[in-house]
């Protein structure tokens, strides 16, 4: 790394030992055997750890002047190599920016590097909570969630992160010789939402918060998979029940849920739930109607803070796959969305078609005025060609696949148009194309400057 560049960083803390750099150059890209082969050697030359916005501006200016690529990083729990430096340069570790600035009128203003777990603890002290959080709540940051995530616990009520109203404001630093601060409000926050840090270094976020609910973790066991899905559909469509999560997990996956081995009956599919206390009785009534038995109930806060316990959310979303990977590194996963009209038929056809090759995991979420059934099924991996075929066969059945085995925004995109808007915005705030290069496939920088 050029000495003048290092000097331009002044006294900002850095990590420059090989092991430390490698550790901060990786995320959960290895979930995908395809990305593992493509990205395993990617590493930064230096990790820079700003303490405040002033430091971020200094680093951004130095990168623009010396042509050094900059990859922002929160907790590094992203899945698609999102926070990995494809072209070397520096990783900008944002975790030093960790202050909750204020909470008022149903909104919170927070620095981007704050851990979600810590943020919720501080909000709880004021009787509030986040609308949604990823299952990586204990290790991920709020900035990483907005810039890299999609949704999570809470999406059953509030939809995806990029649904209007879920992010109210964002303050970003541009990557120019003289960095600018830009305040994005309302719909303009789409420019940084799930943009993998390609459209500005986010230093602060403004988000809606809700009055705290003491969520109850529940596990319900069923005799067969379709009964579990039918319960999930009735439960998620019941407007009187406050709910945060509903995941259907097949009996092929539950043996990997070692922590809950004593409560989950052998051979039974389950539904994992987070329910408001007032919803526990009606949930039990709906479960009984589908032959379900409640086998576990606990306060979520107790589950996440007591070291002898585990919260149900660490078995939902991408954690379902992680629980399997802890015991069997030969599996991977696919992400799907089922059309509601043909959902049951599609599930039955595909279960028959794939047999033991696909281990079923469904998540229910709010999509506009509907509840959508999405899949994050575990797949026994053999070859890249077969994995492509498994995804293609889902598509042939009419099921949408969101490919988690690609590392750029466009190939994983649900909404290509907004990516074009982002590329246009990026021309102004990252003219040299130094912000997380390689993640926006179709971006052509306005100017050329490379480290030399
Ligand atoms: C086991 C497991 C479970 C998961 N569950 C969920 C889930 O429930 N829901 C979900 O949405 N995701 C989930 N994910 C993905 C990921 O954990 C989340 O999206 C998480 O919120 C990312 O936060 P992070 O701080 O780790 O971000 P990182 O991985 O560090 O970064 C993610 C992206 O954001 C960019 N970025 C980070 N901070 C900034 C910043 N301040 N400014 C600009 N860009 C920035 C990075 O460059 C990167 O592109 C899961 C992943 C794993 C491995």
What does this structure look like?
With 452 residues, the protein is an alpha+beta fold. It folds into 3 domains: 92 residues, Uridine Diphospho-n-acetylenolpyruvylglucosamine Reductase, domain 2; 117 residues, Uridine Diphospho-n-acetylenolpyruvylglucosamine Reductase, domain 3 (2-Layer Sandwich), CATH 3.30.465.10; 187 residues, Vanillyl-alcohol Oxidase, Chain A, domain 3. The mean pLDDT is 95. The strands form 4 sheets. It has an 8-stranded antiparallel β-sheet. Strands 5, 6, 7, 8, 9 and 10 form a 6-stranded antiparallel β-sheet that branches. Helix content is 29%, strand content 22%. Flavin-adenine dinucleotide binds next to strand 3, helix 6, strand 10 and helix 11.
- Between the first and last Cα atoms, what is the distance in angstroms? 10 Å
Helical coverage, percent range: 25-40%
How many structurally independent domains? Answer: 3
- Order of strands across the main sheet: 14-11-13-12-18-19-16-21
CATH superfamily of the largest domain: FAD-linked oxidase, cap domain/gating helix
Total strands: 21
Per DSSP, the total helix count is 14
CATH class of the largest domain: Alpha Beta
Radius of gyration over all CA atoms, rounded:
22 Å
Name the poorly predicted regions.
Answer: none
Largest sheet: 8 strands, antiparallel
Name the overall outline. Answer: globular
Q: What is bound: which ligands?
A: flavin-adenine dinucleotide
Q: Would you tell me the structural class of the helices and strands? A: alpha+beta
CATH architecture of the largest domain: 3-Layer(aba) Sandwich
Average pLDDT number: 95
CATH topology of the largest domain: Vanillyl-alcohol Oxidase, Chain A, domain 3
